[in-house]
Design a protein that fits this description.
The protein is α+β, with helices and mostly antiparallel strands. The chain has one domain: Muramoyl-pentapeptide Carboxypeptidase, domain 2. It contains seven helices and four strands; from the N terminus they run αααββαααββα. A hairpin with a 4-residue loop joins strand 1 and strand 2. Helix 2 packs parallel to helix 5, helix 2 packs parallel to helix 6 and helix 4 packs antiparallel against helix 5. The longest helix has 45 residues.
Amino acid sequence: MSIELTPELETLLEEKVAEKVAEKVKETVERIREHDYQMTGKLLRNMKERYGEDVYDVTAKTYGEFACQYWKKRAEDHGDNSIESLIELLWETLPPGFEYTMEKTDAGTQMYCTKCPNADRALRLGVEEQYYHVICKSDWSIVEGFNPNIGFTMTKNLMKGDDCCNHFYYYKDKILKNLSNCDSL
């Protein structure tokens, strides 16, 4: 006995199957990310116990070198290495789950990230110390690679238990020019 499907039912069935497949893929990707965070965290924790704090410095430097080269290429390919372009390429393309606000001032651009899936996962799994060195410390290298004239500060960090990450971007030459103007007063 075979069942004849109308085109409408066939389309509905295809949509439901596609939804279920997408849901399973999302669950699988999340399990892989969880496993990756746990294993990387454990590896770095064990290496720190054996070799000391320098392990975190080497980790941050290694990830930073990669980030610097990657974002240098992004700026070249984009043809614009302004702060606005960095924010467009970095912040405005973040995957779902990030929450942030932006405030432009005369001195630069202030970003306040109040929700970060990376920090949420690292804190939940107890690997925030390790992932701070893997993810967050690369922020300086991203900026340096994208445009060496862009300065960057961050004094608060979600992975360190703060209420936000406060990324501030500014032009170094503009700050130096303003300082030199103050000297002539």
